[in-house]
Task: structure prediction
Amino acid sequence: MMRSRKSSNEGYPFINPQIVIETTAGEIVVELNTDKAPLTSAFFMDLVARDHYRGGAIYRGTQLSIEQGPFLLQGGSALPYLQDASVGSNAPMLDHIETTGVTGIRHRRGTLSLARDLNRTGHALTEFFICLGDFPTLDEGGRNLLDEQGFPAFGKVVSALEILDEISTQETKGYTHLPLLEGQMLTTPISVEQIRILS
Result:
């Protein structure tokens, strides 16, 4: 059973910290918009501080639709669950969506955002994705979610976006038991060794 909880930015008073996503393909540096998206940023930083993403992976690549062209890449800790129906998930959820209409952070090339459960409204998951192109349909009012709240964007890649571009050239023939994600799983997932907050 997934746990739902609120988050605040207590303990992270500094504005716009940076995090490093350490992967087997290289290190990616992301700046978090704690000033514009404080709840989402604090939720993510709390997960990072608790080593939630250690041993995770960047595992999904999708274009969303043929006409949109560029990929987005998704990662986190859910790969075992996506590959094995017998594995459950007890990852927490953020029970408030800071919409792009409120934050002003749009889904453009390099944007970091949280995934959502398509069957729930008003919640965000621990899984994250990074846009390799502009995806306005992921913003508030876009057509990718029935509740039209969009996805909570909260950061931007500031270094090594080319590493993600290279990952996106992979074939997507990886296994998943979820029909919705067939044809979107990277053949060779990229291991996330850890994510850490830069002081």
Remarks:
- The two ends are 34 Å apart (CA to CA).
- Confidence is low (pLDDT under 50) at residues 1-13.
- DSSP finds four helices and ten strands in the chain.
